[in-house]
């Protein structure tokens, strides 16, 4: 089969080549991939660290070619959205049945391919914060793929949303259209909030934590800042209105049984209730352009590669 292989001799660190078709385990389906979406983490860290010839790719949407031998998961011919630690940048992938969501017939599989990491992360992180109806929520790094899904899902949940972005002048209108009530350039400019979804880490995480109300929760999702978190003395005191505040780490692939969430999210995208915010889309022959845009931070939203 054809696949995008790690090859650090090329400018993007990738090349189209040949790889063996994966052999599924009994609890896995073989999926023919139609489209995949790129994530900053896999492009930045994955390509740097993976062995040469590796097939990366967390997100993929396609059609079940061969169902799981143990009877779990959808039948052959079912359109699906899938998540795995690798293998999405290829014509076929083997994926655990509990990481496969069913897609409504006729849905745009390119748009659907943006769901696994970005939308499922946003949904599960919101679950960790707890009910958000009538509560105040701060979302940092809100212009990224996960941030944009988080704003929309938090709006569905009835939250009052403050979105943080490095360039409010350029992105405020778009974030407000997705559901943000306020847009700030730094978490320190937010009022006191009941929960935080932090996509950035470093000093922004520290500033966001300072905005937490009593019993508030910060979910640390992303680490794009590449900087350490240094908290001032007293930040963790449990008095002076700082009662029971918590910081929770997050790793999506530690979550199992994501199939119902992926199915629900695919239904919302197919129905037009969630906008995947695709800002770059083309065939995988032009993957280098998408990688450059992601690494250069000029691509906001999601990049979709169609498997030609």
TrEMBL record:
Signal sequence, renumbered to the chain: none
Disordered: annotated span: 1-21
Organism of this sequence: Saccharopolyspora kobensis
Keyword NADP: yes
Name this protein carries in UniProt: NADPH:quinone reductase
PANTHER family named in the record: QUINONE OXIDOREDUCTASE PIG3-RELATED
Domain Enoyl reductase (ER): 9-305
Family matches, as SUPFAM superfamilies: GroES-like, NAD(P)-binding Rossmann-fold domains
InterPro entries named in the record: ADH-like_N, ER, GroES-like_sf, NAD(P)-bd_dom_sf
